[in-house]
Amino acid sequence: MKLLKTLSLALTMSVTPALSQAKDDAKSNPFAQRAADIQSELIELRRDFHRHPEVAGEEVRTAQKVADYLDGLGLEVTTDIGGHGVIGLLKGSKPGKTVVWRADMDAMHSDEPDPVSFKSGIEGKRHICGHDVHTTIGLGIAKVLSERKAELAGNIYFLFQPAEETLHGAQAMINDGALDLMHADEIYGAHVSPLQVGVISAKPNMVFADWHHLEIRFNGNENTAEITALIDQIIAGQLRTNTDIQLWKPENYLHPEYGVANPNTVYKDYLLLSQSAKTRDTNQQLSIRTAFLTTNTDDLETVIIDLKAKLAKSPYADRLININASQRVPAVTNNEELTRASRAYLLNLGDNTEIGTHYGVLPFMTDDFAYFQQKIPGVYFFLGGSNFQQGVIAAPHTPNFQVDESAIEIGVRTFAALLSERAQR
To answer: Which interval of the chain is the signal sequence (predicted)?
Structure first.
């Protein structure tokens, strides 16, 4: 817990210079009061999801509650898309664009004690990534918007995605026709983050680093240690940073002076080796696997060319079979125009939400929201969920993960306003 408090303090300090308070003369958020009115209802809904966590592929109860809720609002509901995915359509009364709000639903495996009073009722499973909050916010947005349907333009889809934690759900929904159903112009989503509650952040272009995997296969399984060391050496020679700082450490990427929220961050251009090469012997063949993180998508080709050239000059040249590259999931990459337009609108919304930005690319695994962004221009936001004064730290995938539930009201009022604005032509 001490480490998490330290990291959160660093994040708070690093984000503060980039924040911009809404202008005093800005227009008021038309959804703020209604979001406040239904906050207690939404908190109970979130706590119900939290008590009944369902991991990827098992989101039966969650999906049913989501579908029932949307149906009760009068939305057109489609279920069982890409597994347990649910899509609800809210049709506005005026011509406009088609925009999508995505929320993920699945929980995670965890044997750590649940620190909240509304504890998980399923042993070994918990919501420690905030998807219970994401699902609730999505439903809250649908509710406040549906109540003002006569004022809305365009079509607003609410996409509730299963299996984000396994990075399979988004592609499964796409394969099952989700995009063909929606014909969307824009897509938006948000993830709970360790930011202080009341802060929302987004940046244009790449948000998370590209994570590439390489498999290098050789005939025979002799000289395993020597070949593995050579692969590590070649990859290490391609590493690129402009600093001696260990970029993968949380205390560094949250640092106020050179972390991701500082305009002068050291996280703008790098290629990092994420792990040492791993070996596997199969049928008299040696398979060596390694991975790296990069902010430049051209690095993959460069690394492969270098590997082939140096292995061709090595004692193992005649044993090389092939080099295969793979990417478990692409990097979340925000559309530049939509990000700037969205931030500009939110800065002028005038509901006391602080709109921040970050400048660096985060050096860890991405979100499969990226698959939707490959097909539809979109923006991925970070929603503050921590309350440092109360010791509530919303650091996903950590044992003591908690969320200040006022983030629900903030998410509903802010993103309801944004979606209604973006749906207007």
So the answer is: 1-22
